[in-house]
Amino acid sequence: MTGSDYYIPALTLAIALVVKLPSLWRSWDSPMSRSIFAIIVTAAGGFVFGAPPTVERINRLTGVPNISALIVYCILSAFSCASLVLLMHWRGGPEGVIRRHTRLWIAATACAMLTFSVLFALSDAPVERQRDLDTYYVSTPFIREMIVLYLASHTGVCLVVITKCWRWARELEAGWTRRGLLALVTGYALSLSYSVLKFVAVGARWAGTDDWDTLSTDIAPPLAGLGAGMTTMGFLLPVVGPRFSSMWQAWRAYKLMEPLWHALEPWNGIGTPMKIPKWSMFEMRATLRATEIADRLLNLAPYLDASHRAAAARYVEAEGYDHEAALIVTEAATIHAALATKTIAWADPDRAPVRVEGGEASLHPVRIAGTYRLTELSRQFSKIKSADLLVGAATSESN
């Protein structure tokens, strides 16, 4: 792996942190917010400090060969601790139990990091190893124990998280929380593979062969990087997923309402049309467009022909539409008939739109209320406009 293989994921995580930082700052009193912050920072830090160019610079700046390995071990231990703490708060439970378990994990992580530091200080590792420290020093006193302790603790954390997340995911229906849990299972499974491969390479060295070193130097690091990225994504999905889903649904509704919105432009009324700023949120855009459509439909209502509506209602009944769909399709056909046939004659300046007796009653307010109904109304209107089917049926029966 080259430096870019580490720095690009780190940059991606940094961007995610910048985007998420305002909301984390507003809710900083929440343990979950602090845990998410710690996860993103430590994940990015693991990539940065694990990159070979960074390893070389840190070793040169400090004058201590291989001290970067100690730093990476401590950062990844903090990442594992933050993940467990967030998982406990995410899962919920008695506040006292969560607080006690949180303190226990933080204390255990602090002890592990202190032990790593002591073992590294006692060891003699003068030769800098940027990629194969685990296998090169696997028989060297003290640093050997540091390597084994880290791999053992990392393996234990992976097994705990995988078990907890899998059990919890099986209790949930489809949703962002379940997706996040499955992403965590995948991420920690990759991290577990990293530990297993490292252990295999270390065991092979103890057995007197270096034929398995490639597992530690070439295969395990990419798995660890991918696992850290998946783990971070797993924790972020339940937080940012609903927001992105809401934005997508709003944007989709905004675009789906466009055909009906354009068709009703002549019925905007005497007021100044609303202007939607380019920087407006998608939800605001969809709401404003729905409001404009509803206003234009109310202006059009007196010119709707009840006979068109009756013919369309008979058509959808014959086609076997369910009640909700039948209402929307009937309304869409009635609107299209009013816009496309003799009821409105925009092409002839001498002819004005004809008010239909009792026309206002043919457009029930319930049927045009809400962004969802207007979205469906516009979608059906677009289909009917293309096929021109129901308008023809309505017109023939009304004449």
Explain the layout of strands and helices.
Blueprint: H1 3-26, H2 31-50, H3 52-62, H4 67-91, H5 95-122, H6 133-136, H7 143-171, H8 176-206, H9 213-256, H10 258-263, H11 282-300, H12 306-319, H13 323-340, H14 371-387, H15 389-398
Helix pairs in contact: 1-2, 2-4, 2-9, 4-5, 4-7, 5-7, 7-8, 8-9, 9-11, 12-13, 12-15, 13-14, 13-15
Explain this structure to me?
Helix 7 runs antiparallel to helix 8 (176-206), helix 9 packs parallel to helix 11 (282-300) and helix 12 crosses helix 15. Mean pLDDT is 81; it is low at 342-354, 356-362, 364-368 and 393-399. The radius of gyration is 32 Å and the shape is elongated. It is mainly alpha-helical. The relative contact order is 0.07. It has helices at residues 3-26, 31-50, 52-62, 67-91, 95-122, 133-136, 143-171, 176-206, 213-256, 258-263, 282-300, 306-319, 323-340, 371-387, 389-398.
Describe this structure in a few short sentences.
By secondary structure, the chain is mainly alpha-helical. 75% of the residues lie in helices and 0% in strands.
